[in-house]
Amino acid sequence: MSKKPGRRLLGQNRMLWLLDALERDPGRDQLIDMLGRRVRALPLGRVRDVLHGTWLGHPVHPMSIHLPIGSWMSAAVLDLKPGRSRQADLLVALGLAGAAPAALSGLVDWAELRREQQRVGLVHAWANTAAVGLYGASLVMRLSGKGAKGRALGYLGLTAVGAGGLLGGHLAYRQAAGANHAEEVPHVVRDGWHRVGGLDEFPVGEAVRCVVDDVPVLVVRESGGEVHALAERCSHLAGPLSEGTVADGCVRCPWHGSVFRLSDGWNVGGPATAPQPAFDTRVVDGSVEVRLPLHEVPEAPYGSDALTETSVDGHRPSR
């Protein structure tokens, strides 16, 4: 009698199988919930959005890790050559100084991820914490005159950094943590105007979900007659904006609280680092139509009426 196939698919990479298993393992979920609450409760104020990278247009964390990793890698190379201990010691210390802001930016991002991403991210953080501990011990040994032990601890720390980098790559490229989940919208929706419904189908001040070329679109009609349309899936983690809160000319994602301006999709509050694709709108014979902006036509200066104003009958001025 033949054996039943195991859980690991034939030919599947063992490392990927282990990482997929890590995503599905609920054993650390209580710890994740507790840590997530504490990170979200940190009194960071506007610094939180700075750490997310809303000002940069993408997450800060991948950029901030270059200082510690680069410093430690350089120290490892210098440790191979005699007479370079002072320079290597300085690089180890520099890496430790850069690890703190990198860890903080990673934590605020991690607290706003999906559960499967948080499971991998937690182990990613453990690996990097181990690396910091090993490099801290390495620096102590180096400054105490025990260079051989310091170098050995440094190489162990670099190994931990490599393991953390593997998990970070899985988060970014396999699980799409930090990616713009609305990037494909301009490439999927066809050019031209698309009818999304009659004007009376859009109650004033309410978020309504429509579909254009299989792409969900959020439509909001304001009291002054203006009609706004954005890609409906949040750029942060594809949360349903149509289930969010509309207030003060913005919509707030119900999943992680990202705030987007209805007039142009700009992300005025994180954790989203990318704006929502915004559509031009018009009302023709009582029907609301939307289209992607014509980027080849020069836009009006920022803040001008031509960019945001909608005429009384609901038509947006020609561009």
UniProtKB/TrEMBL annotation:
What keywords does the record list, in alphabetical order? 2Fe-2S, Iron, Iron-sulfur, Membrane, Metal-binding, Transmembrane, Transmembrane helix
Q: Does the keyword section mention Metal-binding? A: yes
Q: One of this protein's Pfam families, by short name?
A: DUF2231
According to the record, the segments passing through the membrane are 90-111, 123-141, 153-173
- Asked whether the UniProt record includes Manganese among its keywords, one would answer no
**Which PROSITE patterns does this entry report, sorted A to Z?**
RIESKE (PS51296)
Q: What is this protein called?
A: Rieske (2Fe-2S) protein
Q: Could you tell me which species this protein originates from? A: Streptomyces griseoincarnatus
